[in-house]
């Protein structure tokens, strides 16, 4: 079976099923809910399930709102609606939406190329190389990809350039997984107790937002989560995490600004242990200006974590902003020299037309992209799936290939 056909079978069907039976997804999600909910939690959940408009009616009866309050209430309802919609979207829809910018730019260029060159030759590959480089796939990765493509085109005796599009998608997935055989684990959980996830990255990349989204994601999976506000350096970082804590209903352990991050994380561990929590999410400061300081701070934090829980942190996730392109790649290099990075969270993939950066990071640094940010909604943090990524890139071509 052709690769496009396989993707179509997997994702287009999933989408259709989701549109026809949205309630099926609801059922699946409800089945994931923890069994040992307290009465209070169940009550909260019941309220959550009531349509936002009903909750509003119930609480706003007989209250006269000022225009500002009204505006806030409308905004809140919109947020709740967006949240509900986000929860119901399939992975393929999320990738398709999140990669719209990259797809529009990349697919337009590839289609244009295919229209101009009907037969595959050296000039065709040269132009394809430029298109891939302009999508931030990374020079070395592009070279590898083009070599693979040439070999495959020869092996399959492909003459028509339209067929090359399918081979590109197939090879992108191959390059992503490499020798890992599609077995990259999202998160390594500690089977014997508290799992500690450490988040590192430069300020402004969306680290706090990612931790908030992750807390929500884990809660939806039935995990009991605590967050530790270890970024004591950036003004407002602690409060920002607290806002997320309130929003997703997760406690935040904090000290005051300027205090020792290792002490905050230590308290976070004690608090998480005493609550019998499953996962502790640790924020850290991201001062790249001084690599020695960064290294010292991160290794102190790690030492504390390891002393309290042998084998922890179970993941050190580096958060990178996809819109910074090749800069993200150099940040990844610096951080992986300073600390052991087990995976990458690539934020704002929806905000760039150069989504190929995922491939560059994976191939040039050999660190898996474990999660991607595909939008600003709390539900827009997705575990990375190279097939869904390629589907998001080629979705229009897939539909088009059906008509050909
Ligand atoms: N479109 C989009 N926006 C995102 C994504 N992730 C984060 N953002 C936005 O990026 C902005 C910065 O994120 P923050 O978490 O506030 O990052 P920061 O506080 O500046 O810095 P750090 O927390 O130190 O990284 C916010 O407006 C977020 O909503 C994403 O995946 N897509």
From TrEMBL:
It catalyses: GTP + H2O = GDP + phosphate + H(+). Its EC number is 3.6.5.4. It comes from the Bacteria. Residues 368-381 form the SRP54-type proteins GTP-binding domain. SUPFAM superfamilies: Domain of the SRP/SRP receptor G-proteins, P-loop containing nucleoside triphosphate hydrolases. Residues 9-28 have a biased composition (Basic and acidic residues). Residues 1-90 are annotated as: Disordered. This is Signal recognition particle receptor FtsY. It comes from Pontibacillus chungwhensis.
